[in-house]
Design brief:
There is one protein chain. By secondary structure, the protein is of the alpha+beta class. The protein has helices at residues 21-43, 79-84, 97-101, 126-131, 159-166, 204-208, 260-264, 311-314, and strands at 63-64, 111-116, 122-125, 136-143, 148-158, 174-179, 199-203, 213-218, 221-222, 232-234, 247-253, 288-291, 302-303. It has one domain: Sulfite Oxidase, Chain A, domain 2 (Alpha-Beta Complex), CATH 3.90.420. It contains eight helices and 13 strands. Strands 1, 4, 5, 8, 9, 10, 12 and 13 form an eight-stranded mixed beta sheet that branches. A five-stranded mixed beta sheet has the order 3-2-11-6-7. A hairpin with a 5-residue loop joins β2 and β3 (122-125). Bound molecules: ligand MTE. Ligand MTE binds next to loops. Ligand MTE is lined by residues 86-90, 144, 179, 198, 227, 240-241, 243-246.
Length: 327
Amino acid sequence: MLIKTDGDGFNHPLGSEITSQQTYLRRRGVLQWAGVSALAGWSSAQAQGNSMPSGQLTPMPGARSQVSGLAIMDKPTSYKDATTYNNFYEFGTDKDDPARYAHALKISPWSVSVEGLVKKPGKLALEDLLKLAPMEERIYRMRCVEGWSMVIPWVGYSLAALIRKVEPLGSAKFVEFITRADSETMPGLRSSVIDWPYVEGLRLDEAQHPLTLLAFGMYGQVLPKQNGAPLRLVVPWKYGFKSGKSLVAIRFTDKQPLTSWMKSAPQEYGFYSNVNPNVDHPRWSQASERRIGEDGLFSRKRKTLMFNGYEPQVGQLYAGMDLKKFY
Ligand code: MTE
């Protein structure tokens, strides 16, 4: 399938969007504060496993991102919907299970192990990850393979910043993301829907794409546990299951990783999992979606967009590929 893109595949920021030095310095101040207070918050109330009511998590603001496609016109999903209608199978398969049970997740101390084909492998403490790059707010459209969508203001930075720091070797072609699996705190691990831990993967160039976000917060606060605290991946042009929550390891490989969903249902889930209205799931159509919060009696379904609407930015990554085959 041929993919239409605008030249180099990226939308460049308008001149008016380029940060003045004054704005930049102001943002630096905000960001330093964000880093410090976010840490303070994690090491106290949340870390002890308290379930905090919405709107009371530690502030985690981010400067408006310059990566394009982010200030979209869609209205953000309500915080309540975004934090009570979740998929986080480690805490159960019902949509309200994560909000009910994820408070048990222990998120301090936390570190991410960087492994495999990199010059600088090692363990990175959450404290250091928070300081690795300036926090940005990015409003992304999210589309779940089940046929619903949300619009979430995430806070984080491009995963590319971390990838640059660890220096992948020339032989690295893929990145595997491994998430927390703790049978003490995660009742969902008793079920065999997935061969735990939950594992996802990207091609290295997908992982390095500026839209691929390492998120630490949402709605101006640190991530609630049910949304993948203390850090998760967000890949907005792919179905939601590619965005692993509560990451503990990032492994650089030369072979395409075998992801959890490919293992449990290979006939239904491929490696790429790009949002594509022209390729149906074997059991249902992917042509349209239900936007959470718009589910009144008369509300219409929305048409699903190629690459979830991010085609101008990411289409080039798949030029010449048959997306029916590489679904
Ligand atoms: N990550 C882990 N570790 N476990 C999961 O079950 N579910 C995925 C993804 N990441 C999942 C996960 C799926 S299917 C979706 S749709 C999104 O998380 C949901 O993210 P949200 O609850 O923040 O909307």
